[in-house]
Amino acid sequence: MIHNSSINTTSSLIYPDIYNYQVLSNQPLKLGIMASGNGSNFEVIAQAIADGKINAQIQVLIYNNPGAKAAVRAENWGVKSVLLNHRDYKNREKFDSQVVQILQQHDVEFVIMAGWMRLVTKVLIDAFPNRMINIHPSLLPSFKGVQAVEQALVAKVKITGCTVHLVSLEVDSGEILIQAAVPVLPDDTSETLHARIQVQEHRILPMAISLLTKGNS
Ligand code: GRF
Description:
alpha/beta, 33% helix, globular, binds 5-O-phosphono-beta-D-ribofuranosylamine
């Protein structure tokens, strides 16, 4: 449950107090990051850690698509990356067991899905209960699942945005931690709108991790 004691209402960036998810330790929080593609969210997390804005360290990046730019970014940051190609596994559970194994082997305490484009199973969720967050390019619960930006354009909403939420079994349905609003402009294409949403993603994902690790600083 979220305590609403310190809600910021001064901008379109609305974030409640999420300290009750904190890991009470002075040690840097050991993160596992999961990404499928470009990895711009991976990049901003790595940068925020390097800038001392988040008391954490990235233990490993797991990526599922060979050639994902996220892996190149990890290499540039000196972060170990592991390719787990979901196409090599019989079913989602077997794939997730391997994900869990890699995360545990790397001593991961908290999992960040930063553009992870796979449905997850109970196998993964049970291994990291309340210790897994995702970034989604809409104001949930609107426009769950794939093509959230396109869904917003089709619905002709005037405001959309992005959400950081806990990962639960039902897709894009876990408890909401932080959201940021983004106006939809008359000439927007999915590319232009997604680009502006990503500017906000790059603010709220590091912010969520920072709040989660507040007890560590
Ligand atoms: C983001 O828009 C995120 O919300 C969605 O996938 C995209 C990943 O972007 N889940 P990037 O790979 O971090 O650049």
